[in-house]
């Protein structure tokens, strides 16, 4: 089913919070039990094993094509874990809060403003972005700086395709991404000392690398709000916080842009933040990671240089001291 | 108080203290440890340690405030030992699940990650307190020496809360509540002692002024 205009939901249709929580908690319990069985059966997706989601939870399906840039040989993290274990501090700093609190994110109408060193500044409507290129199924490893990791089947197309449409000038050396921010919707944003809106950035060559993804969905469906709906980037060879969510503006600059976590902790979160087992975070080692969804005695594994994408990205950093440019 | 009441209260305290462990065991058995099981176990044991330790530190201020609650002292050892128990579980989680029993990894963590250094310090400070918690030890040390040794619990509590602050991301404020509570409890002691001294001096007969 092609994505069309998302219907307005009457407030009478919205599941009351208690019922939703009850329903959701029972489903979590069930999913936990079923997950064990599902893995035993070899099913990648819980959805293959349990009944389809109800209208209250169902995300719209996206029409996708396979991608030669997809990662193989990894077990997918469950849809449950991908959509309920999130860092989205505007909606609360606990991992389970974004799924509970991001319901108010206004994903329609949605535009992305193009600014800075471009031929002509313009504004893209989200629905136009969805039609720009065929949407690909791309499985990527996702490595958080907190030393946990997932394997996520994203839906999108190379960021490079989008950037070409932005017509950047030759003077543009960096791209900055700004996320949605509204303190009325994101009421929990004041619980940290972070200065919003969330800002991230890439060097132009990094942004143009075919691996960098402009993502609109996961598991073949539209992004849930807590995963950065309706459009985000995914930069799989960098720590997860570089993959900015719910993007409203893209700026092309000739200087390195300020980025949120670098401002919060410059000794901890560098601009590049490439996944690197040889460069420790000041407060913990990055040599190993915990794979989400596995039993605690089986989670620990070695972290791969560039999160296992060295072949596609290492050349961009030839000659760079990655300990200094972390 | 009646012996039966004491037994009941102690039983309830045991149950309350065992609840975090019970929850962990149930959650592990029913796959309810969440997406990052290691993190859940770590956080649950750490929080239990801090909470129970804080409760144990509330006993003396409460007794000073309301002498009728003197019997609370009978629960102090129980709470202290449970705090040590969860601290040990928390430490073991690091040894087993983060360091994978690798001595080099543990040495690097201790040397380079200050939140781990101060966390280990907190546990090390609790160890002699747990070891001297028995009646035999109290008798052997004598009340004065035992009391002085057990003042280390304040240092351990501070190390514990610093461990928490140094673990969260810059900008995250979740340890604030616990910090405030501990702050209040730390301030309570000198405040209550001062209150007692000023009360005692007020009840002394005034000097006769000729």
For the record, the count of structural domains of chain A works out to: 2
Oligomer: heterodimer
> Class by helix and strand content of chain B?
mainly alpha
As residue ranges, the low-confidence spans of chain B are none
Number of helices of chain B: 9
How many domains, in number, for the residues of chain B? 1
Question: What is the count of β-strands of chain A?
Answer: 13
- The percent range for strand residues of chain B is under 5%
Q: Output the radius of gyration of chain A.
A: 19 Å
Which H/E pattern describes the elements of chain B?
Answer: HHHHHHHHH
- CATH C-level class of the largest domain in chain A is Alpha Beta
User: Helix coverage percent of residues of chain A?
Assistant: 10-25%
How does the major sheet of chain B shape up? none
Instruction: Based on Cα principal axes, name the global outline of chain A.
Output: globular
Greatest interface and its residue counts?
A-B, 36 and 30 residues
Major beta sheet summary of chain A: 8 strands, mixed
Count of individual beta strands of chain B? 0
In words, what does this structure look like?
The complex is a heterodimer of chains A (326) and B (210). Chain A has 326 residues and is α+β, with helices and mostly antiparallel strands. The model of chain A is unreliable at 1-7 and 12-58 (pLDDT under 50). In chain A, strands 1, 4, 5, 8, 9, 10, 12 and 13 form an 8-stranded mixed β-sheet that branches. In chain A, strands 3-2-11-6-7 form a 5-stranded mixed β-sheet. Chain A contains 8 helices and 13 strands. Chain A folds into 2 domains: 9-58; 62-317, Sulfite Oxidase, Chain A, domain 2. The radius of gyration of chain A is 19 Å and the shape is globular. The longest helix of chain A is centred in the first third of the chain and has 25 residues, at 17-41. Chain B has 210 residues and is mainly alpha-helical. Chain B has one domain (3-183). Chain B is 78% helix and 0% strand. Chain B contains 9 helices and no strands. Classes of the chains: A alpha+beta (326), B mainly alpha (210). At the A-B interface, helix 1 and helix 2 of A face helix 2 and helix 4 of B.
């Amino acid at each position: 089913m092609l994505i069309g205009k998302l219907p307005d939901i009457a407030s009478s249709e919205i599941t009351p919070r208690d019922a939703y929580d009850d329903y959701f908690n029972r489903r979590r319990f069930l999913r936990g039990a079923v997950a064990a069985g599902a893995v035993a059966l070899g099913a990648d997706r819980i959805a293959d094993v349990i009944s389809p989601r109800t209208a209250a939870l169902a995300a719209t399906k996206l029409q996708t094509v396979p991608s030669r840039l997809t990662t193989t040989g990894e077990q997918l993290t469950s849809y449950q874990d991908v959509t309920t274990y999130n860092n989205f501090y505007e909606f609360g700093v606990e991992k389970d809060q974004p799924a509970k609190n991001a319901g108010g994110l206004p994903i329609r109408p949605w535009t992305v403003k193009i600014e800075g060193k471009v031929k002509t500044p313009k504004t893209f409507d989200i629905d136009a972005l969805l039609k720009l290129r065929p949407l690909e199924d791309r499985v990527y490893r996702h490595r958080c700086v907190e030393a946990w990791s997932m394997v996520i089947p994203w839906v999108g197309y190379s960021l490079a395709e989008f950037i070409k449409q932005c017509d950047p000038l030759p003077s543009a050396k960096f791209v900055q991404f700004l996320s949605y921010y509204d303190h009325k919707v994101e009421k929990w944003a004041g619980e940290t000392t972070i200065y919003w809106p969330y800002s991230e950035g890439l060097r132009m060559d990094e942004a143009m690398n075919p691996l960098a993804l402009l993502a609109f969905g996961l598991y073949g469906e539209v992004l849930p709000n807590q995963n950065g709906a309706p459009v985000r980037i995914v930069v799989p060879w960098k720590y997860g916080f570089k993959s900015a969510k719910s993007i409203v503006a893209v700026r092309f600059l000739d200087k390195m842009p300020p980025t949120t976590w670098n401002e919060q902790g410059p000794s901890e979160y560098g601009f590049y933040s490439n996944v690197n087992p040889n460069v420790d975070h000041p407060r913990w080692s990055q040599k190993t990671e915990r794979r989400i969804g596995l039993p605690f005695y089986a989670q620990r594994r070695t972290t791969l240089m560039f999160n296992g994408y060295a072949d596609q990205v290492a050349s961009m950093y030839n000659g760079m001291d990655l300990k200094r440019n972390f | 108080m009646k012996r039966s009441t004491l037994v009941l209260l102690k039983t309830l305290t045991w149950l309350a203290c065992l609840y975090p462990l019970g929850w962990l065991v149930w959650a592990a058995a029913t796959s309810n440890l969440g997406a990052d099981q290691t993190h859940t176990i770590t956080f649950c044991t750490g929080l239990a340690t801090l909470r129970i330790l804080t409760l144990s530190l509330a006993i003396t201020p409460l007794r000073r405030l309301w002498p009728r609650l003197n019997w609370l002292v009978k629960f102090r050892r129980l709470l202290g030992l449970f705090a040590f128990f969860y601290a040990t579980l928390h430490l073991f989680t690091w040894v087993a699940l983060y360091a994978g029993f690798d001595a080099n990894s543990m040495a690097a963590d201790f040397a380079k990650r200050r939140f781990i250094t101060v966390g280990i310090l907190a546990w090390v400070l609790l160890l002699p307190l747990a070891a001297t918690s028995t009646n035999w030890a109290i008798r052997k040390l004598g009340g004065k020496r035992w009391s002085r040794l057990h003042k280390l619990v304040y240092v351990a509590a501070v190390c514990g809360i610093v461990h928490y602050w140094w673990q969260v991301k810059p900008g995250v404020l979740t340890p604030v509540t616990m910090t405030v509570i501990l702050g209040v409890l730390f301030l309570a002691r000198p405040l209550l002692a001062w209150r007692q001294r000023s009360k005692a001096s007020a009840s002394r007969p005034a000097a006769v002024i000729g």
